[in-house]
Amino acid sequence: MRIVSLSHAVFAVTMIALGILGVIKGDFAPVWEPVPKGVPAWGLLVYLSAFISIASGVGLLWQRAAALAARVLLASLLLWLLVFRVPDIFRKPTVEVSWSGCAETAVMVAGAWVLYAWFAADWDRRRLAFATGDKGLCIARVLYGLALIPFGLAHFVYVKQTAALVPGWLPSHMAWAYFTGCAFIAAAVAMLIGVCARLAAALSALQIGIFTLLVWVPIVAAGSKDAFQWSETVLSWALTAGAWVVADSYGGMPWLAVKMGFRE
């Protein structure tokens, strides 16, 4: 095994779990859905996405296969983003869900890209130099930073729905909805301009993780049978894993570094 960080292990195990979930359900796991039923070879895509999740997750935990696994996972997620998510923005540019769906996949792409930059083999560095090393990390961080913007805006567009999810023991639910929305946007700006980028990435990952633990886990633990709530719980966990990997990519950079861009 070659475990670079705890986030790497969690991301890999998460991909394995998503794949197993897809096989059990016979449907797309939350990271891959939604895919219109009318898409050609829909059933084949279900099991293909599940196989990629399982195989890449296992490969990421095996030193000899890590580079290939990261390459395949990145390519598949990036293709998914371009084929199934980005077109939604052009078809329904005024619908916030189109942007949020694209952002969710972008976070997973960013996490996979960081791992690809870490594990890139000599073949990758020679032929795909732009996607490896510091350049690859730069792309992943920009992609993640951009993804945080729709997350933040969603809190304003759906402020009542967001406030309703705030745990009952916290006061001022509406204020928390606005605050967390602003926090996502502030983190995005910080990462994109390179001001306290490491801190911004870490705090944004922490915020996504807190949402998972304080909002979605208690809902499903209470016995919810709502498929949407279960899907959101799984997706939130996966996004936490992806965000954590991106945050770890800043290791070694000062927490309060200013105008250092995306380079190590």
Question: Percent helix among the residues?
Answer: over 70%
Q: Structural class of the helix and strand makeup?
A: mainly alpha
Total DSSP E strands: 0
Distance between the termini: 25 Å
Number of separate helices: 10
Strand content: under 5%
Computed CA radius of gyration, to the nearest angstrom: 18 Å
Name the assembly state: single chain
> What letter string, H or E per element, gives the SSE order?
HHHHHHHHHH
Task: Determine the mean pLDDT.
Answer: 94
Low-confidence stretches: none
Largest sheet: none
Shape: globular
Topology overview:
Elements: H1 6-25, H2 42-60, H3 66-91, H4 96-119, H5 122-127, H6 133-157, H7 159-165, H8 173-193, H9 197-221, H10 227-248
Helix pairs in contact: 1-2, 1-10, 2-3, 3-4, 4-6, 4-10, 6-7, 6-8, 7-8, 8-9, 9-10
Summarize, please.
This protein is mainly α and 264 residues long.
Characterize the structure shown.
- It is a single chain.
- The protein is built from ten helices and no strands.
- With 264 residues, it is an all-alpha fold.
- The chain is globular, with a radius of gyration of 18 Å.
- The mean pLDDT is 94.
Key phrases:
about 260 residues, globular, about 0% strand, 10 helices, mainly alpha, about 75% helix
